[in-house]
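Why show two proteins at once? Because comparison is the fastest way to build intuition. When a single record is shown, students tend to memorize it. When two are placed side by side, the eye starts asking what differs. So, the first record is below.
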Amino acid sequence: MGSVTATVAPPTDPNVTRWFRTFGAIAASGFRRYATYRQAAVAGVVTNTVFGLLRYYVFLAAADASGRVAGYDRAQLATFVWVGQGLLAVLAIWGWTELADRIRTGEIAADLLRPIHPVTSYLATDLGRAGFAALARLVPPMLIGLLFFDVYLPRRPATLPLFVLSVLLALIVCFGCRYLVNATAYWLQDVRGPMILWTLSSNVLAGLYFPLAFLPGGLEAVLRYGTPFPSLLQIPLDVLVEREPTPVQLGLVGVQAGWAVAVLALCRLVQRRAERRLVVQGG
């Protein structure tokens, strides 16, 4: 076992076009990589559909005689559930341990020798993965909801573009959180503890088990603005079902943007600190 201190030098070519071309090439390779798992995508759609049915009818059971609960009507609940089931695969909230595995085996040393920063490289790959997931895992649950349930369709012209932006920001925030959880392997080697904590927290606080509007107003506000978790699912879905007026929706997307910048900055800070004391397993 030996210590390796790595410093990643930025590319000597400051050409922005070349940077975007490299980023796009990495994202495209991520798309092709995950597109090979077609059977897993089909199995995932079936699983998400089953759990979507369970979630939807549980929410309906919580509704009052008028079919409303926490400000959502039946149609909004249907959209919340079926689009949310698809977004789970796009965001890939759980299960990603690639960075932690490479740290544990020492393969991370190869990543540090590349001319692109590890955070940027893994983000590009994750965006490519999400692109495939949007086609293979997001569209089918949305079609199921549209065909078999009375779903809520957006009525404001600005909603769909704002929803797409919100999902992109949710993906960046989710990636950053997963990267930070994996980066604990630089110090702990075994990330099972942080991963379990992240899984439990994201499940409850992101709006997966239930919309955060089910909680008391003060607690909901603290979670929505004081933690990054609602930026993963709750905010994009609230934007889509138009639960709030457009100015409020813009403010919520602004909260997502703030968390995206903060989390990515923290990822780079943690990565820089980790490189100073990196221990590569096996020498």
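Second record. Ask yourself what differs from the first in the token line.
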Amino acid sequence: MHPAPSIIVFTTLSGIGFGLMVWLGLGLGPDGIVFALLASGLALAFASIGLLASLGHLGNPQRAWRALSQWRTSWLSREGVVSIATLILFGLYALAWVVYGQRTLWLGLPAAAGAVVTIYCTSMIYGSLKAVPRWSKPPTSLLFQAIALAGGALTLSALAPVSGAPEPTLLTLAELIMIAAAATWLFWSARAADVRLDADGSSPETAIGLPGIGRVRLLEAPHTSPNYLMKEMVFRIGRQRAAALRRVALVLGFVLPFFAIALVLAVPALWPVLLVAIPVHLAGIAASRWLFFAEAQHVVSLYYGHRA
């Protein structure tokens, strides 16, 4: 699949934004006003920028509001409805926190639940596509949740010291979540690599509607120049480039943030390192998202002579 920049920004920023909302809604982190402004503002900014970036992938962004009416059948529509409700809930929670100086959990807990549901809906936009076995077979929802919570925990632990000393409990939590997210990503990648285009019985023979005549091969291309389907659904990436990007994603997205957290646990005075770890983590997750789309194979590629 063609890894459009708007989709990379959307899945990267909205994930960390809603992941941070989960931890803040649960009441984690200091109660100071400065922390409330920074953490809540960053969560809302990340999530909002990510959602706005997703509009860039629509054919007619000005009609995006119409997608909200299809929530009964479309995961994209459900994600839009739930994300708006979550942003409103969390915004009220953050406002009450800043104005009154204390957290209102009867607003925070629903906001945290809404953030989890939003991440799930985002993952199902891709996980529900049976025409892309690489997404529909592995636990794609688990991958999105793990990465979002890891990014949120990292950001939470990085911002906490603005209202005091680094909190060992938050740092330990972030470290454990980062390990879990890295393990989930590695597991998903390994399993996705084993998923073939014929996972659901598709083949070039079924693509042309003649599965019973034996093995077929493409004599001539269906047309003389690339079309929309070939540009969007039959994206190709070299193995060496994919392997290099996978290493970049692992190191930047998980390994370096993990060591940054471990360093601050050992030497709390070095907590500004965590602020640098946030953009490093985002760069790694962006690389993993690029691979998520670039390596996905749509069964329409069978029509153009590709085999599993």
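One difference worth noting in the second protein: The chain is about 65% helix and 0% strand.
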